[in-house]
Write a structure and sequence with these properties.
about 170 residues, alpha+beta, Glutaredoxin, 6 helices, about 30% helix
């Protein structure tokens, strides 16, 4: 299981790009995790699924609201990772108004999530293998803080906790 001091798992995540530019085409684009994280401080948060109640009402909105404060605390990018396809993550991002604030990173096959060891089996609820709810502060690809939620909880992976950790790391 992913822990503080580990490098993020290798592989790729997909992001739905709305506007062509910077070498990206409109639509789903694949990004190598190692290359994309290199030299950056990233506030990464993962959640069970797009459009699910806690994720839509609390988790994503908190990071959107705190995006400027996180950047002021030294965070270069904010990534939301979920086991959904890039089309779903793109649509959800539009609805949540994440543009320019949170990168909605799709892990459609759950390969990244499985590599972290932070999986959540929701097969009995018709959702298959998903990501556990967690957040991590990642510096140059290395996990500096990791906040994993207990089953059904939303207490430690929120934007306020991440902001405190980013500010402490910057100090």
């Amino acid at each position: 299981m992913l822990k503080v001091g580990d490098k993020l798992p290798s592989g790729s995540l997909q992001e739905f790009i709305e506007v062509e530019g910077n070498g990206c085409a409109i639509g789903p684009n694949s990004f190598d995790v190692e290359k994309t994280a290199a030299g950056k401080t990233i506030a990464l948060f993962a959640l069970p699924g797009a459009y699910t109640p806690t994720c839509s009402a609390k988790h994503v909105p908190g990071f959107v609201e705190k995006a400027d404060a996180l950047r002021a605390a030294g965070v270069d990018e904010i990534w939301c990772v979920s086991v959904n396809d890039a089309f779903v993550m793109g649509a959800w991002g539009r609805e949540q108004k994440t543009t320019g604030k949170v990168r909605m990173m799709a892990d459609g096959s759950a390969a990244f999530t499985q590599a972290t060891g932070l999986t959540l089996d929701l097969t009995a609820r018709g959702m298959g293998l998903r990501s556990n709810r967690y957040s991590a502060l990642v510096v140059d690809g290395t996990v500096k803080t990791l906040n994993v939620e207990g089953p059904g909880k939303f207490e430690v992976s929120d934007a306020d906790t991440m902001l405190k950790q980013a500010a402490a790391l910057k100090a």
